């Protein structure tokens, strides 16, 4: 998903830097690090601004998923979900906001999930982390509105990425048959939403775009 977003934003004329556990050729500048580490995020932001100039948009899309019955979820599993999804968004937002607020311009985008709204079988800790991100997005949008910084999110349904295991129930024909399109979302569908929120949605903040084929309405 991150690659598709980087490719789409690059194609639209933006300079893109990325932070991931592995380097990516899809980004003009690629940093290897951990989004849950504030130091790694600050380093990436500092070096990006030295090379590319001020950062006007950030997409927090680091992901971690596992399906576990609620009574079997360990504290470490629950905390890891929160560290990656909620902690990752916190680290990214806190690293770039001083500059955005000073310039009175900027866009923060969090990739959440339809499960944050609709829930799912054996998805309690994942849905909790994604739901927490939605709460921060809406609160931060209100807090930052007077500064000119917009905060929005994209909540995809099951998307055809490596994060979705080949034997995932979301890939089962029985599930796909319940969707109006009969298919999973593609990474490009998410990337198009991100592009719109950055460049075409100047009057939108605190909103959620839902590319999920009508699975959650």
Question: How would you describe this structure to a colleague?
Answer:
The chain is α/β, with parallel strands linked by helices and 217 residues long. It has one domain (55-209): Rossmann fold, CATH 3.40.50.720. 44% of the residues lie in helices and 12% in strands. It has helices spanning 2-11, 38-52, 75-103, 115-118, 124-144, 173-176, 187-199; strands at 17-20, 29-32, 57-60, 106-111, 149-154, 208-209. The strands form two sheets. It has a four-stranded parallel β-sheet with strand order 3-4-5-6, with helices on both faces. The chain has a two-stranded parallel sheet with strand order 1-2.
Topology:
Elements: H1 2-11, E1 17-20, E2 29-32, H2 38-52, E3 57-60, H3 75-103, E4 106-111, H4 115-118, H5 124-144, E5 149-154, H6 173-176, H7 187-199, E6 208-209
Order of helices and strands: HEEHEHEHHEHHE
Main pleated sheet: 4 strands, parallel
Give the helix proportion (percent range). Answer: 40-55%
Number of strands: 6
Structural classification:
alpha/beta
CATH topology: Rossmann fold
CATH class: Alpha Beta
The dominant shape is: globular
Family: Belongs to the short-chain dehydrogenases/reductases (SDR) family.
Keywords: Oxidoreductase
InterPro entries: NAD(P)-bd_dom_sf, Sc_DH/Rdtase_CS, SDR_fam
GO molecular function, one term: oxidoreductase activity, acting on the CH-OH group of donors, NAD or NADP as acceptor
